[in-house]
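Hey L., structure's done. Input below.
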Amino acid sequence: MVLPDGSLVWLNAASSLRFPTVFSGEQRLVEVSGEVYFEVARDAKRPFIVTVNNTQVEVTGTSFNINAYEDETAITTTLLTGGVNVRSGGAVKVLRPGQQASVAGNNISLKNDADMDAAVAWKNGMISFQGATLPEVMRKLARWYDLKVIYEGKIPETIFDGELPNTLQLSQVTKILTKVEIKFRIEEGNKLIVLAD
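Output:
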């Protein structure tokens, strides 16, 4: 979508964006939940501020991804171009391109060599599983396919790599995932049962 100031925004599954019909005043303030990718129109006089819970990402013109799903352990901001300030509580981190900030509570940690492709894979029609645990993979699938995931047995400590097109049907995805010895059962009411040993 295009915001009133000309900024471009992409929303991932189960995500939302709140913004005014016109940006007035000294700031361009928006509020997000879920995962959103921004290409912010430059306006040095009016910073663009994204608010998520107690976290703010401030920018004058840049492209970045913010992942703020409620079921994730942290809010992550990945900077592709430009610069942003990530604020939480009293802490502030300034990001440069290629960096990723993770906010958990009021703590902000910084990763210098973030995987840019994995961060924006969803925007490019892919579901990325780079370095993901089984619960992380299942959370992504639950959002994309509108599922409730239920585990039966001990959750295996499998780490996944790779990505899949988000155009695949759920049955195709589960068939691919069974190749790593994870078994699934689909039940009525959009329930995906993960059969673990």
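The radius of gyration is 18 Å. The CA atoms of residues 11 and 79 lie 16 Å apart.

-- N.
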